[in-house]
Design goal:
This protein is α/β, with parallel strands linked by helices. The protein has three domains: about 1-90, Arginyl tRNA synthetase N-terminal domain (Gyrase A, domain 2), CATH 3.30.1360; about 120-360, HUPs (Rossmann fold), CATH 3.40.50.620; about 380-555, Isoleucyl-tRNA Synthetase, Domain 1 (Orthogonal Bundle). Helices cover about 55% and strands about 10% of the residues. The chain contains 22 helices and 13 strands. The protein has helices at about 1-20, 45-55, 55-65, 90-100, 130-150, 165-175, 185-205, 205-220, 225-245, 260-265, 265-275, 310-320, 335-345, 380-395, 400-420, 435, 445-460, 470-475, 480-490, 490-500, 505-525, 535-555, and strands at about 40-45, 75-80, 85-90, 115-120, 155-160, 255, 280, 285, 295-300, 325-330, 355-360, 360, 430. The strands form four sheets. A five-stranded parallel β-sheet has the order 6-5-4-10-11, with helices on both faces. A three-stranded antiparallel β-sheet has the order 1-3-2. The relative contact order is 0.11.
């Protein structure tokens, strides 16, 4: 709603400037003043024009105001120094807001640009661990925000089925007496075997030659028996990854196997495209010094096998052909590799991908390594979150039966993890702190509790009744009611701006703010039995919808009872 209002106001300002025949063009931006006495929207367009017109900003704002035709939702405009402050026709605006909030509130108009968003893409050599979780949560949440923003989108998981780690596990299956436990998650079993192979490799470094031979044979010949072993390893890992992802409410539309780019000749094709730029000295490589990158990019090993980077070039070329926008979610340690890849893509006439880099997440106990077998799996993290949430629920809601407590604890625990990670800008390092994540006063649980509280009120009132909000009610609103409606109205603008910026933390911050405003409304404004019961029940319902839809953008469920 605020975007519609800003567009109307901007058109009025432009029309006024055209009347004045100043012959200048300027981008008109709006902000919400910190004090409602200064209006509902404000623009400092006079500042931008002052230098071009060689006149004072105050005089310019007065001239614009004198020639302004007010749009439908604006009651009046004031020129205060260099600012033009717009005051809403509150009754008309609030009615339009309340009428716009239906169950699908937040879905914006269809965009022209299609998107492929790749995220998670963890090596299939063990279970997802805490080092992967920020990638997965940022990626899945961004996909939800972009879809709500109207972008046709496909999420992809790039399956590294040709990496050395997979060859190591295959070697382990061929040479170690390791019995896979059929009762254990398959990705966990593969992770255990990978760890055991690393232990064996450390004790016997000559094994590396055998592993290299497996990798070379797989890439250059794809013999059926070896191919079956590689497929078995990767499929088992992906089976466990998908199970973990499902519990975390993460979904991928497509799994793209790295080996397809060898099989289909796309790696050879991109090497052919690059032949005028490559050099060879045992290995095939690109010297990138002229692009300000000191480290060369190796494209083919001395034994003729390709590298991850070579296959990644073919993958990115394919993504650029299939969608208008390609987005990668990557750890900050990939910055050099991504810059190399981007330069090479431009050499073959392919656009760079957009990239969201994130810093890593750790527990206070320290760092993790799959190779050393020291890591916290995402499954363990979720189990611990649900366990702690259940302990809190047993204290707060002892009257619930065990099954009800467990169901709600699952929603709270998983939501806590997703929100704790989504709430911060990806550039910030995160140390995961349980007390903050599971706080019923400040964390995701406080938002979920606001939703449950709204559901309880509506259930008591047998809402929705057939009601018509009286226009007089909208003329005489309490300040808390005004603040709540204005906060609800901002939801679509938050989605639009978050989608454009490729960031999800503004959605999380908005959702926490909305829940806080609703809670203050609930505590200060009687609903049932009040003289404005119909209006306030409607506000409760519109708040419920907006909170639920906001959390859904973050992949978080909204319980009806807590």
């Amino acid at each position: 709603m605020y975007r519609k209002l800003e567009n109307q106001a901007a058109e009025s300002v432009k029309a006024s400037i055209n009347k004045l025949q100043w012959g200048v063009e300027v981008e008109i931006k709006f902000e919400q003043p910190p004090n409602p006495n200064m209006g509902d929207l404000a623009t400092n367009v006079a500042f931008q024009l002052a230098g071009k017109l060689k006149r004072s900003p105050s005089e310019i704002s007065e001239n614009i105001m004198d020639n302004l035709e007010l749009p439908p939702l604006i009651d009046r405009v004031e020129a205060r120094g260099p600012y033009l402050n717009f005051f809403l026709d509150h009754a008309m605006f609030f009615r339009e807001v309340l009428e716009s909030v239906d169950e699908g509130y937040g879905q914006l108009e269809l965009q022209n640009d299609s998107v492929i968003l790749e995220h998670t893409s963890a090596n299939p050599n063990g279970p997802l661990h805490i080092g992967h979780i920020r990638n997965a949560i940022i990626g899945d949440s961004l996909a939800r925000v972009l879809r709500a923003g109207g972008y046709p989108l496909e999420t992809q998981y790039y399956v590294n089925d040709m990496g050395r780690q997979i060859a190591m596990i295959v070697w382990g299956l061929q040479n170690l007496d390791y019995q896979l436990d059929p009762e254990e998650k398959p990705d966990v079993e593969m992770g255990k075997l990978y760890f055991q192979v690393n232990q064996t490799l450390n004790a016997n470094p000559e094994i590396k030659t055998e592993i290299d031979a497996i990798l070379k044979t797989y890439e250059q010949e794809f013999p059926p028996q070896l191919e079956e072993l590689f497929r078995e390893v990767v499929d088992k890992c992906l089976e466990g990854v998908k199970e973990t992802s499902q519990r975390l409410h993460i979904h991928h539309d497509k799994f793209v196997w790295e080996s397809q780019f060898i099989r289909e000749g796309k790696v050879d094709a991109i090497l052919e495209e690059l032949k005028d730029y490559t050099q060879e000295n045992e290995v095939l490589y690109l010297n990138l010094n002229q692009f300000g990158i000191e480290k060369e990019l190796i494209l083919r090993r001395s034994d003729g096998t390709s590298l991850y980077s070579t296959r990644d070039l073919a993958y990115h070329e394919q993504k650029a052909e299939e969608a208008n926008i390609s987005i990668d979610i990557l750890g900050s340690d990939h910055k050099l590799a991504l810059e190399q890849l981007s330069v090479v893509l431009e050499l073959v006439g392919c656009r760079r991908p957009e990239v969201i880099f994130y810093e890593f997440i750790t527990l206070p106990e320290g760092s993790m390594s799959t190779r050393r077998g020291v890591f916290i799996s995402v499954d363990d993290l979720m189990d611990e979150a649900v366990k702690r949430a259940l302990e809190e629920l047993e204290n707060r809601r002892p009257e619930l039966n065990g099954e009800e407590q467990r169901e709600i604890a699952e929603i709270i625990g998983v939501g806590a993890i997703r929100f704790y990670i989504a709430r911060l800008s990806p550039e910030k390092h995160i140390v995961f702190k349980w007390d903050e994540a599971l706080s019923f006063e400040r964390g995701c649980a406080s938002i979920q509790y606001a939703h449950a509280r709204a559901c309880k009120i509506l259930e008591k009132a047998s809402y929705p009744p057939e009601i018509e909000v009286d226009a007089d009610d909208l003329e005489d609103l309490d300040q808390m009611e005004i603040e709540l409606i204005k906060t609800i109205a901002r939801f679509t603008r938050v989605i639009e701006e978050s989608a454009a910026a490729r960031r999800v933390h503004p959605v999380a911050q908005y959702t926490l703010e909305l829940a806080g405003v609703f809670n203050r409304f609930y505590k200060s404004m009687p609903v049932l039995g009040s003289g404005k019961e119909d209006l306030r029940l409607m506000l409760v319902d519109k708040s419920r919808i907006t909170i639920r839809n906001s959390l859904a953008l973050l992949g978080i469920e909204s319980p009806v009872s807590m």
